[in-house]
Design goal:
single chain; 423 residues; mainly alpha; Gluconate transporter; transmembrane helix; cell membrane
Length: 423
């Protein structure tokens, strides 16, 4: 529908979701409810993050903070090594930061570097996003790896250590090395994220620019690690949990950014409101497309398609780590969500893992690597990348989808190699 008939992606998702529900045997009264639930579930967890992140990104771009950060990065690393600077930034930010927040925060920085130094957008952007994606799929405290550690009764610290050993080569292969093959793919990023070149005397200071951009990382990092050092009955633990929720963090950061990058520098509220309004216009279509992908995901989940496929695979006589990776990969292909793929695989693979005495720490990583595979049109990340970078479907498959599969395969190879080393 999207590629051949040029139908709007949101409408195509809705129509296909309804048709798929009928074809897969869902009761007719439940199909509409499943579509609405899928839209509500995906937007419920993303809409605040994406909208506040877009506002923050627009403000960082318009205020000159992104321009200042780009200058600092170029001064430190130089044009020749800017790609590696992006990788390091994405990796460090990606450890405590949820993928959706990291994406919308880093896109303006990527575009500032692209426009200012006339560099290919995918060559610069993909390595950073590869780092964000790998940390999301492999490393605690992200939702899926953290939950898998508990379900597999693995060790959080050891899993994180193994995860770092596996993640770094996967990022290098799927990021800087792969991105070198994409220099000729045309990409004109969304104009709204192109920062206007401001005179040096109108730019915010280095500290306030970096502080504003990194504050979400600082707050989420504190919220993730402080509870590890507190008594479970501590009275401040609920406060930390509340203030550390991604939606609350983004709201706090947006308010502070509005003050430091706007009000404190003499900007009026009308000016800030105009920036925020423009940011919302820019992402309206992205939100609708993500909502449509959530509807299709819910239909496939409620119909039991992913469990059917995984059930057949469980009967195969193959290496348990590879089987877990394959099950997660196929569920990811069906439902589009790396988190859902990882958690759905856990219930299927636990009995096999126990029976074969497979290292639970490696099993977490194998499932995480599989959950990054086969990103396509039912994945919200696929559409965010396509729309933000203004790519055709073909080029999105050639860049984003292939990158996700490369890091998934590299992750599996790393896990199997680690098994040989620690055996």
């Amino acid at each position: 529908m999207i590629s051949v008939f040029k139908i709007n992606a949101f409408l195509a998702f809705l129509m296909v979701s309804v048709l798929a529900g009928m074809g897969l045997g869902l009761p007719l009264p439940k199909i509409a409810g499943a579509v609405e639930k899928g839209i509500g579930d995906v937007l419920g967890s993303l809409v605040i993050i994406i909208t506040t992140g877009a506002m923050l990104g627009k403000l960082v771009a318009e205020s000159g903070a992104a321009q200042k950060i780009a200058q600092v990065m170029m001064d430190v690393f130089g044009t020749r090594h800017i790609q590696w600077a992006m990788v390091i930034t994405g990796f460090v930010i990606g450890i405590p930061l949820y993928y959706g927040i990291g994406f919308v925060l880093m896109v303006p920085l990527i575009f500032s570097v692209v426009y200012r130094y006339k560099l290919p957008a995918l060559y610069i952007g993909l390595p950073m996003l590869a780092a964000l994606s790998v940390t999301h799929g492999f490393l605690p405290p992200h939702p899926s790896p953290a939950a898998l550690v508990v379900q597999f009764k693995a060790n959080m610290g050891l899993t994180l250590f193994y995860g770092l050993l596996v993640a770094i080569p996967a990022i290098v292969i799927g990021g800087p090395l792969f991105a070198r093959t994409l220099k000729n793919i045309p990409s004109t990023p969304m104009a709204s994220f192109r920062a206007k070149e401001l005179p040096e005397n109108e730019l915010p200071g280095t500290f306030i620019s970096l502080f504003t951009a990194l504050l979400p990382v600082i707050l989420l990092g504190l919220a993730s690690f402080l509870p590890l050092f507190l008594d479970p009955d501590s009275t401040i633990l609920p406060i930390i949990t509340f203030l550390g929720h991604p939606s609350i963090v983004m709201l706090i950061v947006l308010i502070l950014a509005g003050y430091f990058l706007g009000i404190r520098r003499g900007k009026k509220m009308d000016h800030l409101s105009g920036i925020f309004g423009d940011a919302l216009k820019d992402i309206a279509l992205i939100l609708l497309i993500i909502a449509g992908s959530g509807a299709l995901k819910e239909i496939l989940t409620q119909s039991g398609v992913s469990k059917e496929i995984a059930g057949y695979l469980q009967q195969l006589s193959v290496e348990p780590l590879f089987l877990a990776w394959l099950i997660a990969a196929l569920i990811r292909f069906c439902v589009g969500s790396a988190t859902v793929a990882g958690l759905a695989t856990a219930g299927i693979i636990v009995p096999l893992m126990v029976a074969t005495h497979t290292d639970p720490n490696l099993m977490v990583l194998a499932v995480g690597a599989g959950s990054l595979m086969f990103s396509h049109v039912n994945d919200a990340g696929f559409w965010m990348f396509k729309e933000y970078f203004n790519l055709s479907l073909k080029d999105t498959f050639r860049s984003w989808a292939l990158m996700e599969s490369i890091v998934g395969i590299a992750g599996l190879a790393g896990v199997l190699l680690l098994k040989i080393i620690i055996a």
